Structure formats: structure tokens, C-alpha cells
Amino acid sequence: MSDPTKTRKTVLVTGGSRGLGRHTALAAAQSGFDVVITYRSQREAAEAVSSQIEALGRKAAALSLDTSDVASFDDFATRLKHQLRAFGGTAKLHGLVNNAGIGLDASIENTSEEMFDQLVNIHFKGVFFLTQKLLSLIEDGRKDCEHLQRSGTRHPSRLLRVR
Ligand SMILES: NC(=O)c1ccc[n+]([C@@H]2O[C@H](COP(=O)([O-])OP(=O)(O)OC[C@H]3O[C@@H](n4cnc5c(N)ncnc54)[C@H](OP(=O)(O)O)[C@@H]3O)[C@@H](O)[C@H]2O)c1
Questions:
Q1: Looking at domain 4-158, does it have CATH number 3.40.50.720?
Q2: Is the pLDDT of residue 112 over 90?
């Protein structure tokens, strides 16, 4: 008989404490995935989402992460590895949803360099280097990344999408 823990699949959703990330995390759990979500400031909200996922019969965890802080990604990867091992199964990720982000409510005239840098750090630099850092944890990660880079050159809007 096959070991059922080997068939468990886990998705990481950044910014899963609220909004679209929360809905994505719950939808993933409803589809049968265990889910790790991240939060930046709203720990209690993230833990509530974890509890909702567990109520659906899936494993869940909420980890802190600031996706604008590339220097913190080593520590995050270590914490994530421990969490995946605690989940059991293959200790791999089967999906990465780079959702964490902010909205900038400013016109082009009123956008400062600091606001621009914050946006780029979260939505582009952080997404790129977090994905790079987690490649070894993603099942078939190298294959997916090749696809990401290839499609990104021709379709820039797809550069930020990782399945
Ligand atoms: N809603 C829309 O109409 C819309 C349209 C286009 C694109 N988007 C994009 O879709 C994503 C989700 O949007 P949403 O409306 O659901 O956002 P939201 O409700 O404001 O939630 C944002 C999530 O991202 C997290 N987050 C924010 N800054 C972060 C950082 N520096 N590092 C790590 N996590 C961070 C937040 O964590 P905490 O709550 O813990 O602080 C929260 O979990 C965003 O990237 C947004 O730009 C949204």
C-alpha cells in the first residue's frame, strides 16, 4: 500500500493573512493542499486563516516574512524547511503563489523615489529573489523556473507567475 503522507502536497501563499492571498490559501486547502501562508504585520489574522485551513482538514502554518527584505530570505527558507518537515510527506513545495504586495494610491506626479523603490522591492526584486531562494524546495522547481524565465522574456506580465 502506498504511503499516504507521500501524496500530500503543499502550497506557499505569501501575504495570506487577508485579501486575495487569504482566499487563495483557503481555495488551495479546499482543493486538497496543505498550506503555508505568510504575513508581514497581521499575525493574529494569519493564525485565524491557518485555523480555517485546519478546519478544512488540511495542515496549515503561518510564518512571518517581509518580501522587501531580501537579506531575511535565508532565515525564512530555514523556517519554511522546518515547517515542511513538520508537515511530513516529501517536505517539498508543490506551488508558490507570490501574492504579497501593496497598492500605491498616488499619481505619477505624487510618487516619490522612496515609494517607487518600495513597490519595486516588494513586487519585483522580492518576488524574483524569494523564488530563487526557494527553488530547491519546489518540486520540479528548476523546470518551472526555466519556463518562467522563457515566458517572462516574451510576456513580461507572466514573469511574476509561478505555479
Ligand atoms: N485587490 C486588487 O484589486 C488587486 C489588483 C491588482 C493587483 N493586486 C495585487 O494582489 C495582491 C493581493 O492584493 P490584496 O488586495 O489582497 O492585498 P491586501 O488585502 O492589502 O493584502 C496584502 C497582503 O500582503 C502582505 N504584505 C504586504 N506587504 C508585504 C511585505 N512587504 N512583505 C510581505 N507581505 C506583505 C500583507 O501582510 P499583512 O496583512 O500581515 O501586513 C497581506 O497579507 C497584492 O500584491 C496586490 O498588489 C490586487
A1: yes
A2: yes
